[in-house]
Amino acid sequence: MQPQNRRPDQHVELQSLTPLRGMAALWVVLYHYTVLYFPSIHPETYTHFIEKGYLAVDMFFVLSGFVLAHVYRDAFVDDPESHYWKFFSARVARLYPLHIFVLTLFLATALAARAVDYAATGKFAPIPWEGARSVGAFVANLFMLQGLKASELSWNYPAWSISIEFLAYLVFPFALLRIWRARRAAKVALGFLLLGMLVWLAYWTKDNFNQWDGPKTLLRCLPEFVGGMILYNFYARRQLPFILRSDFLFAGIAAALIVLLHFGAADLLIIMLLPVVVLAAVMNTGYAGKLLNILPLIWLGQISYSLYLIHGFVQFVTTRLLAMSDVPDKSDLSVASSIALALAMLFASVCLAAMTYYGVEKIGRRYLRKMLGVQARRRTAAVVPEPIPARSQPGAPRG
């Protein structure tokens, strides 16, 4: 335990958040494969849990704001201007190697398919200049701009969310500084403002938060990202109830979330519960924390970014293979065949995610950090840093 007059060490990994990220990635993959891709499965007949898998993206944004506030708080509170380039370079090194690699896989596969068609028919269909999987879309992906109009600019459709997160990085340092220095009342007011934005989005979309195209994505994701930053601020200052550490409360929150998802409750209601899930997980000091941090779940969290990006490519290749097998319409497949193919795709995605995590993501991140002059941050065991009281550090604002 740290002395109370010290800030929590930003180099120490927060417990349970990596496993949460892994489970969220698996959830969204199951949603894409069973609900969207194979229409014959109909999991909603038994439960709406998988059907609500698009809400995993909302969990991602809350987690991202929370974790980045933990890692970069000291740097930007002490000297925001000198650390901005280091932060931005580190995020480029985090996202780009795998993103570019998967994007290249899409392009290579599309060209290979055209080469096969050319060998069979003597006709070569060029890649179009506009539209999805076009030259223009490829350029937009290179600059992480595809999320602004994902329906027309996506090669790898799940990557729309990392494009929106990349935009959030541009304002993160300045928002973090102001949130950390603000009084408690101002933070609470900002929290209600962000909630109001989500309520407006729920009204605008008739409670459909599966928004991944156009300006609605910003109204969905940015309030959640900033909300995660505010959440960390209260956590780091010990301004949260002690009961959040208990197994009893964690079990109750987890049960409430599962029940709401199973019965298909309103998206807004589920999203409002996600920050509580994050806090209950990171603050837990009992058996729930130990259960969440078993090695398989930690490993799943470690490969979660690779799993999230690569599963779109697996779907892309499967579509090509089905077309070559004279199954152009997936609705013609039986339930058993659809489930078998979905499980095979999931297995392939996990295997490829492990390979790209170790062979592309980690190596590429290390190389880019070195090239951009960013020192790698030290990581230690996944334990909870001891939060500090609001008034224990010299010059800290009250509230």
What does this structure look like?
With 399 residues, the chain is an all-alpha fold. The chain has one domain (17-372). Helices cover 67% and strands 0% of the residues. It has 14 helices and no strands. It has helices at 17-37, 56-78, 80-121, 135-142, 150-153, 160-181, 184-204, 216-236, 247-262, 267-283, 287-292, 295-302, 304-324, 335-372. The longest helix has 42 residues, at 80-121. Mean pLDDT is 88; it is low at 1-7 and 378-399.
Concise summary:
This protein is mainly α and 399 residues long. The chain has helices at residues 17-37, 56-78, 80-121, 135-142, 150-153, 160-181, 184-204, 216-236, 247-262, 267-283, 287-292, 295-302, 304-324, 335-372.
Order of helices and strands: HHHHHHHHHHHHHH
Estimate the strand proportion: under 5%
Count the beta strands: 0
Supply the number of structural domains: 1
Radius of gyration: 22 Å
Q: How would you sum up the global shape?
A: globular
Counting DSSP H or I runs of 4 or more residues, the number of helices is 14
* CA(first)-CA(last) distance: 24 Å
Structural class: mainly alpha
Largest sheet: none
* Unreliable residue runs: 1-7, 378-399
Average pLDDT metric: 88
Helix content: 55-70%
